[in-house]
Amino acid sequence: MAFTFFLPVKMEFGRDRYKACGEYVKGTRVMVITDPVIASMPYYGEIKDTLSDTLALTYEKVMPNPETAMIDEAVSLARAAGIDCVLGVGGGSALDTAKVVAMLSRTREGELKDFLYQRCAYPTERTGLLLMPTTAGTGSEVTNVAVINDTEAGMKKPLVSPYMYADIALVDPALTDTMPKKVTASTGIDAFCHAIESYWATNTNPVTKAVALEAMDLILKNLRRAYEDGADKPARDNMAKASMLAGVAFSQTRTTVLHAISYYLTARYRIEHGAACAFTLVPFLKYNLGTIRNELQKAADYCGYRTPEDFIETVSELYRDISLPKKLSEYGILPEDADKIAGEGMAQATTKLNPRPVTFDAIKEIVAGII
Ligand SMILES: [Fe+2]
Question: Are 205 and 318 part of one and the same domain?
Answer without folding.
Answer: yes
